[in-house]
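Posted in: Protein Modeling Q&A

I'm a second-year student putting together a small comparison for a lab meeting, and my supervisor asked me to include a predicted structure for Na+/H+ antiporter family protein. I've never done this before, so apologies if this is the wrong subforum. The sequence is pasted below exactly as I got it from our records. If anyone can share the structure token output, I'd also love a short note on what stands out.
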Amino acid sequence: MIAFLKLTPIISLVAMLLRGMDILIAAPLATVLAALLAFLLDHKSLQEITDAAINNAKELMLILFLLMVAYAMGEIFMATGVGASIISLSMNLGVSGKTVAVVALLLTAVLSTATGTSWGTFAACVPVFVWLSHITGGDPVLTVAAIAGGSCFGDNIGLISDTTVLSSGIQNVEVVDRVRHQGVWSLLCLILASALFYVAASNMGLPSESSDATKAIATIPPEIWEVLRTKRASAVALLQQVQSGVPLYMIIPLVLVVALAVYGVSTMACLFAGLFSALVLGLLAGTVQSVDLFLNLVQKGFADAGSWSVAMSMWTGAFGGIMKLMNAFEPISRLILATARNVRTLLFNNGLLCLLCNAALGDCTGQIVTVGPVIREMVEENVEGSDSDLYKLRLRNATLSDAFGVLGSQLIPWHGYMIFYTGLAMAVYPLHKFTPMEIISKNYLCLIAVFSMMILTITGWDRFIPLFGLPSEPQVHLKKDIVSAKQI
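Accepted answer (user: helix_wrangler)
Welcome! Here is the predicted structure, written out as tokens:
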């Protein structure tokens, strides 16, 4: 009974969100409930609860700074001609309303794999593609969902991704082996998702003809222009620049960000390089009138991040800290071991634990660090087999932890990723009030990845995918006496 009560904060949070409550209210309420349960059930002092909440929120400080710089870069890319140059180039290549989501998915998948960052990829691409979708007659939600999925694709498989490196290290496997293990599966998910995005666009009746950007912008009604001027003046600048044209070299800031990331430069440095190059080239092209006006755009980006995403990230961190303080998932860990009938069900249960912990913490890195050692010990202490076969099981554990952390985050409405993506999408495209649930419903890549991973693991169908198959019984088998895992 106590174990169930400790899970009620996450159950309550889900219920509040499903009823339509704003996460700005739901997250603090769930945090208060978690704190109350920690006090009543575990007899934690108010100081211990406060410290747990604050210390966990402190770990998000770098992410919060990245959020602010990412918002600023989104504002700058829209206003200085970077976005306009990419839209114009894409229009020349014949992108239509029916294909814009597919193009966005594939481009962001490549970009995130090259850079190893989902946050930076989304921040750089959403201002461009959401307005390209508008111009070509695409569906904004479908396009944002495609960008979100593509941005997380590379964060899950990229050699330089922090989550790829971290999850592999915790399971004591080589990063290159991890990428090879899941590589074909990841590509199949991407191909199938691309097909589904195209089918969805076709079923919506979206136009297949390449649009004339100037004519499309001219059809925007006056009241929409007024809304844009009030809520997002930089979007007006972007559309006007598409109409008037900008030099092709304004694409350089985005190229520079990608190149630096591939070279191994930190995400923060890449973002600042994008900002600085946009300033220099914008002054040269005439799209930036003065340094003061440029700094005003940066300030607006910082303010937009602080007004919603940063606040929600702080509450998410506090909530996760209190849940960890209560050891809320210890009974579930024991249940996973008790219900395992063979090695595949054990790994399947490990995946469920990763998803559940990710949902509770709202932080994929926190989930990887918290649950990673637990699922590794579950395999090492409870499975017998050759060293090479056990290594393959650790590869799958690493893939589960990372995939259900990064890709699984896209299916959790209150997750930090979804808060960031939804907030930034609304900031750059105020014509639609995006919600996490509608983005989730159309994020075909993440839906395919998460559910296929579970199905392939439990059924053994992963043997049909090159390099992805697991050793079967009796090559590997559970020990007769199941050893309890350590507490989370």
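A couple of things worth pointing out for your meeting: Strands lie at 383-384, 477-478. The radius of gyration is 23 Å.
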